[in-house]
TrEMBL record:
PANTHER family attached to this UniProt entry: ADP-RIBOSE PYROPHOSPHATASE (PTHR43736), MUTT_NUDIX FAMILY PROTEIN (PTHR43736:SF2)
Protein name: NUDIX domain-containing protein
Residue ranges of domain Nudix hydrolase in the record: 88-227
Pfam families: NUDIX
Transferase as UniProt keyword: no
Domain of life: Bacteria
Originating organism: Micropruina glycogenica
Record GO terms (molecular function): hydrolase activity
Assigned protein family: Belongs to the Nudix hydrolase family.
Amino acid sequence: MQIVGVVVAGGPGVFVRPLVHGTDPHRLAWELGYRIVRPLSATGMGDDLTLTVQVSAHGRPVTERGSQRRRALDPDLTEEEIGTPLVRQRLAAYSIVLSDRGLLATEFSERTAVPGSWGLPGGGIDAGENPSQAVIREAVEETGQHIEIAHLLDIQTDHWIGRSPAGVIEDFHAVRIIYAATCPAPTDPVVHDVGGTTASTRWVPLHAWQRMHWAAGTRALLDRHLVRLAMELGYRRRWATG
């Protein structure tokens, strides 16, 4: 995957860099002298993705800090068990989905490091698939809902050493492309991909979303975007009426 920074949409790139293992795109841009204003597009398929972001020069001194700090999600891991972990960068796509029934949420299963926490529909990008296709497919598999992409919203990364759902110890770099989406004809959600990383799914009324136990990364995204998205996509009234 590579990151392209442009000052104006459609303009020439001021930098083009690969997103190497463990790198956060915001830090990458900052160390090149820019801050990311917003993502513009995610094109390509599988691992051959190009994320184009709008940037502005920050004009501040820069200290290179290297790879994003790793954190171990499995507290039971010992140094001997860690050994030489499998290095893996996983590109995935997720979406904040709104409808007349609220916010679409998925519960993490026991196969994950955060069982019982809630997140957003989405998952890994398959070979021959672009990010928007991946998030539409995952929404059907995890919730049974047919969604429509509104626009690219954010990019989020994390980096840790831990056990995969298969029990393999990995040096794992999660790269999450986040979309805003709507569901024009919401139904009662149902998990079709039984036995995977999604235990259950539901529509959460907008006035009640803060009562849910969200995974940390999801909570950060909702805190940053949900109010504005509800207004932008025409669901702000649902905050008061439930």
